[in-house]
Design brief:
Length: about 230
Amino acid sequence: MSISMPLSDKQETIERYSSRYQKFGYSPKSLGWDKGKQDVRFEILTSQYDFSEKSILDIGCGFGDLNKTLNAKYANNYSYLGVDLVPDLVIEARKQYVGDKINFRTGDFLDISFENTFDFVIASGIFNHRLNNANNYDLIEAAIIKALSLSKDGLAFDFLSDKVDYQLEHTFHSSPEKILSIAYKYSRNIVMRNDYMPFEFALFIFKDDSFSTEDTLFNRFKKQMNK
């Protein structure tokens, strides 16, 4: 599935976040968040994996603040590449997070040819805006396919849920059932969490979905249980 965000949607995204950045500077408000919720999202997205000595690709990284959560848990014992479409955000991210194993890159994740693979791919908030000239679900599936092709272990993405009282015209609220149906095309080993916020959910796809025919338990799960 070779799909990219239409140029008009890219330009709109860049203008939206650049305008917020000029107004709010280095603040979650520039990303459309408040700090408390951003921290919760990062805690959830890092809840299913052990990132110690692992490599992480952060799609739509914004200011790279995922590093705060990772550093608190793993004390810089990881490598990180953040990618974002918006140049202003990447410039600020490079000011905030400096290290031999922390890097940032400007561009559209779906268009970039990466030289290396990563242990994990993470994305927070990148699917929350309704596209004007493309199908959101097509773009989500394209991102899942590419993320899995680049990751050794799996991915963690979050979404706005369509199980809400109302929806704004410019936001995109994903159906958890639809996202699950897409995810199951690529692995049987999946976690979906909707236990932290009522109107958002997180998806985890593990690449290793092998299991024992004797007990029908995922091998990955058994390894975790034996630690």
